[in-house]
Write a structure and sequence with these properties.
By secondary structure, the protein is of the alpha/beta class. The protein is about 30% helix and about 20% strand. The protein has a 6-stranded mixed β-sheet, with helices on both faces. A 6-stranded parallel β-sheet has the order 6-14-7-8-10-9. A 3-stranded antiparallel β-sheet has the order 11-12-13, with no helix packed on it. The protein is globular. The chain binds flavin-adenine dinucleotide.
Length: about 425
Amino acid sequence: MAHYSIAIVGAGPAGYFTAQALQNAQNEDRIFSIDLFERLPTMWGLVRSGVAPDHPKIKTVAKVFEKVAAEPNFRLFGNIEIGRDIDIEDLTSRYDAVVMCTGSSIGKKLGIPGEDFPGSISAAEFVPWYNGHPDYARLDIDLSGTTAVVIGAGNVAMDCARMLALNPSELDPTDTPEYALSKFHSSNIRKVYIAGRRGVEHAAFTAPELRDLPKLEHTDIHIDADQVSAAHARVEAIGEIEKHTVSNLEAWRLIAEHPKSGHERAMEFRFLSTPKEIKGNGKVEEVVFGINKIENGKVIDTGESYSIPCSLVISAIGYQAAPINGVYFHNGIIENEAGRVLGTNIYTVGWAKRGPSGVIGTNKSDASDVVNLILEDLKEPKATMDIQMLIPESHQVIDQGSWSKINAAEISAGEPAGKPRIKEVSWTKLLSLGLN
Ligand SMILES: Cc1cc2nc3c(=O)[nH]c(=O)nc-3n(C[C@H](O)[C@H](O)[C@H](O)COP(=O)(O)OP(=O)(O)OC[C@H]3O[C@@H](n4cnc5c(N)ncnc54)[C@H](O)[C@@H]3O)c2cc1C
């Protein structure tokens, strides 16, 4: 019987699904001890700090993660940042395999003039702010103007726009932290534009998210019906249409045809629009867009432009991985071949491996593919010293027991208000909840 030790870095979906795949791969010939390291005192990665508060069902996947964590071969080391508190070499020398599941947390830049004006922020800041991530809770997001522009044509852009355009009373029963909730309640934003560079048919929004939009009770959704028809005509001219494009175009048609109620709050989609410049006098006042057209399937700049006056711009055009000492990154991801970091016993799963694509479930199949590679590569188990020896006694580790205390305290704080939880957003308080 071979007994292997595996380190997983990052307690998001990729981390937990990797642990689950390893647990499932145990048999009479091999068993695994799994140590999961997480830099935050809270777990579940973007399930906690990315998924929008008004989509609580999606967060129920956390129950699966907690089941994985309850197995006897699993240990949690929260409040430990790899590359800072423990070096990557300390993991590679002690563990038979190290699986980096550290995600993608830095927003890609637009690279246009005015991008650094106050009032221009990235979804990589706005999303963790409204989700109570302890590193972002103190951001001062200015919602005093009436109009916001969200740049990007994927589900993250949609989440940002929806959170701004919702009637905040819809967020009252959610786990939106109190500081963000009161900011949304006093927000003057009434009109939110979402702008995409390419055509309606190219947008990366997924059909279920689009189909949910007309269900918003207090917000009108606008899309130019002619743009939807033109997109239909273009894809039909190509012939073979992918299934998701068909569902998306159908969802767009329903949005265009849905009767508008004349709500003060509105979201409007603008396609074929490339942001060229953010203008203003020391702060955001307007975004200038170049107008594109599609010819022979290619997006072409017409040379014409238009602008949208606004006070807030959120760019949601993708993420790249944050650097980690001792790990080689290339093009925003950990350099890897199908999940193997060649020449090492390091592997990677999830957004750190693939970049920011796919839903939570995508990380499950990804994890099981990479665990198969690990099984192929494993040789004699290492006889190693426990990693605990490297953690000073003064450093508070959030183990599974401490995390359960934090989780339970948040849930019980939410009960009187009928909320799933009230998130604690300060590092210090989270750490002290872990002690109680
Ligand atoms: C705004 C937004 C909304 C989304 N909404 C949905 C949705 O509704 N439905 C859906 O299916 N998918 C959604 N997704 C996608 C989903 O969240 C991702 O597919 C998934 O979270 C990626 O998992 P991951 O484990 O690779 O990364 P993450 O979830 O980002 O987890 C990475 C973890 O690694 C930790 N970490 C990073 N560096 C270190 C380090 N050096 N040491 C220790 N720990 C470290 C981080 O703190 C984090 O906890 C959304 C994504 C975003 C950004």
